[in-house]
Amino acid sequence: MSNQKLRKKTLILLTFLTIWSAFTFTVHAADGKDRLLPTVGDALVEVRAEDYLALQESLLTYQKLWEQQEAKDPNITEELTTSLELLEDEEIKQDALYEQIVQLASATDDYVSGESSSPDAVDHESIKQLADDLDPIIQAIKTKEIDKARILNDSFVASWTAIEKPIRETNLQAYGEIETKMSMVRVSLNKDPLQPEQAVKAVKVLQETLKGYAEGKTEGNNEENSNVSLAGLIQNLERAEEAAKNDDFTSASEEMETFIQLWPMVEGQVLTKSQQVYNQTEQQMTEILTMTSSSNPDPQVVAKAVQEMRYDLEPFAEQSSYSAIDAFFILFREGLEAILVIATLLAYLRRTNNEAQRVWVWSGLSAGLLLSGGMAVLLTILFAGVQSGTSREMIEGITGLVAVVMMLTVGAWLHKQSNILAWNQFVNKQLQKVMNRGARWMLALVTFIAIFREGAETIIFYLGMAPSIELSQLLWGMGSALLVLIVIGFLLVKLSVRIPIRPFFLVASAFIYFIAFKFTGVSIHALQITDVLPVHPIQGLPVIDFFGFYPTWETAVPQIGLLAFIGYQYLQKEKKTREMKSKQAS
Higher model confidence: residue 250 or residue 578? Predict the structure, then answer.
């Protein structure tokens, strides 16, 4: 996969590796560390040229040098092993191999240089020097040495990459302006035919922008750009697409320039979730601007390119989320079912004059709560280390779909028990088994299983929900449900208040199906963001976040299937109810 960022990084590494290897020759000659950088530098050149035989030789040389090191970095060992494995594949994937060698070079750079983790300061002198480095490019354009101008610009981009990080972190506005001007220079140098005056003007504008920043004329901070959103940039793409369709390439170019300028402020939102989409966007935005600025652009080609770019970015702008209401009904439903089991057990013991056996019920309750709590802590620890970027979205997607399957099972069971006779038969059957056996400990076991099952289901549901709900919403929902459950528990257990079973189960099953519908959409959407599933948009339909509906075929079809399943369950339930009434009548 060829992309601008990767090329810039590679040029930086090549330049740095060469300089550093010369500098460290006398320091590390004894252990061969001095040869690691030039060797991996050779590998970078060879992988770009797709010279796999030479690359294999360089990697084997690197491996021998690495084995000589006393203090080995496990990260480099892993990167080297992966590089060799990719090279040994029958069908070598150039893009993956190229990126892997870049990672190996970067890790080697950190290892040899002992890179400091302290934050970098903006080097204003280097920025001034960088501005002066643009003069040879201007001269090459004026003398019509276009190839030389492009090579010099590549060198400039490499130098900029080396110092851009602190600027991006401290002043996104200035960073965005500089990146935009650099893109305009690339566009002007790639025009065919070249327009020298326009190219010189683009370079001079970039030069003035750099000088202005170095002199403190471009002020700003990241907080000022907090209102910039990916959804807003997608609107720029929509306007650019519409302008291209109408042959208004001036407006299309302006929209793309705005997109490029604001892109650095939201790029992290995409980069942390999909490296592939990020790389494609970095490449496409410049290519589209080049097309709109050409002498004879094709409206259909430009519009299609913008549309594809927009389709790639739209899943990242649609923020899937859950509310306190969703969090409330999950805990409320699961908790109320557990309370019903406990209340029924206690009432049964009271009716049969076995109140002395209540201790077994409370013991089972305590054990179930403790094990559920331990499971929650364990899963939280296991998932905490991967709740970032792509891994986070994948966890949300996979866990959410597991929760959907469980919800469908629970919902079907709830629907089945919505008849009071069916519920009484279910409870009495379970209790009669216990008392007939005379095994008091089984009271604790029945209680434990009921509580732990509800606890495990609740944990799974909340794991699928957690990445897409604000902490305050989660706490409000859980806290409210807990308070309501405490009141209901007191009324049922202490005051022996009867709860209307049928309405409860009907309402609970309806809400559980609603949440399952929402989980399905949000979970599949999360997997689309991580490129696990493709995206095929359905034109003309809006995003409905409350229902977890996203207008793609991948999300809509499973949700339609879910509705069909719910309808089938309802029809089956009605059929059984009619049969039961017929038997009672006869």
Answer: 250
Is 61:39 a contact under the CB 8 Å cutoff?
Answer: yes
Q: What is the SS3 assignment for 16-50? A: HHHHHHHHCHHHHCCCCHHHHHHHHHHHHHHHHCC
Residues 45/109, Cβ–Cβ less than 8 Å:
no
How far is residue 278's CA from residue 256's CA, in Å, rounded to a whole number? 16
Angle at 503 between CA 500 and CA 505, to 5 degrees: 100
- pLDDT reading at 386 higher than 60: no
Q: How confident is the model at residue 27 (pLDDT cuts 50, 70, 90)?
A: very low
The backbone torsions φ and ψ at residue 387, rounded to the nearest 5 degrees and listed phi first, read -85, 60
Give dist(CA 219, CA 34) in Å, integer. Answer: 42
Mean pLDDT of all residues in 362-375: 81
Q: Which of 461, 419, 443 is nearest to 580 (CA)?
A: 419
Residues facing residue 495 across a β-bridge? none
What does the alpha-carbon distance between residue 328 and residue 118 come to, in Å, rounded to a whole number?
44
What is the distance in angstroms between the CA of the first residue and the CA of the last residue of the chain? Answer: 74
Greater model confidence, 393 or 560: 560
- Give me the pLDDT at residue 340, please: 73
**φ, ψ of residue 93 in degrees (nearest 5):** -90, 105
Alpha helices in 215-298, H assignment, sequence order: 230-245, 249-262, 267-271, 275-292
Whether the predicted pLDDT of 161 surpasses 60: yes
Residues 30-44 have pLDDT tens digits of 445 667 767 777 777
Name the residue type at position 298. Answer: D
Distances (CA, A) of 295 to 181, 195, 252: 20, 10, 14
pLDDT at residue 552 is higher than 70 = yes
Report the SS3 class of residue 315: helix
Who contacts 403 (Cβ-Cβ below 8 Å, separation ≥6)? 460, 461, 463, 464, 465, 516, 519, 523
d(CA 32, CA 64): 10
Distance CA 134, CA 185 (A): 11
Residue 144 is inside which H or E element, if any? none
**The model scores a pTM over 0.90:** no
Looking at mean pLDDT, say which of 193-207, 355-369, 428-442, 516-530 comes out highest: 193-207
The tens digit of pLDDT for each residue in 200-229 reads: 988 998 889 888 888 876 655 444 455 678
CA distance 217 to 212: 5
Identity at 416, one-letter amino acid code: K
pLDDT value, residue 557? 93
How far apart (Å, rounded) are the C-alpha atoms in residues 101 and 6?
Answer: 11
Work out the number of other CB atoms within 10 angstroms of the CB of residue 540.
6
Q: In this structure, what are the phi and psi dihedrals at residue 549, rounded to the nearest 5 degrees?
A: -100, 125
SS3 266: coil
Tell me the residue length of the chain. Answer: 586
Contact call for residues 393 and 473 (beta carbons, < 8 A): no
Buried b (16+ CB within 10 A) or exposed e, 312-333: bbbbbbbebbbbbbbbbbbbbb
Let me know: does 396 contact 527? Beta carbons within 8 Å: no
Q: Is the pLDDT of residue 191 over 80?
A: no
Cα atoms found within 13 Å of the Cα of residue 69, Cβ hemisphere only: 19
What is the sign, positive or negative, of the torsion defined by CA atoms of 376, 382, 387, 392? negative
Residue 293 DSSP SS3: coil
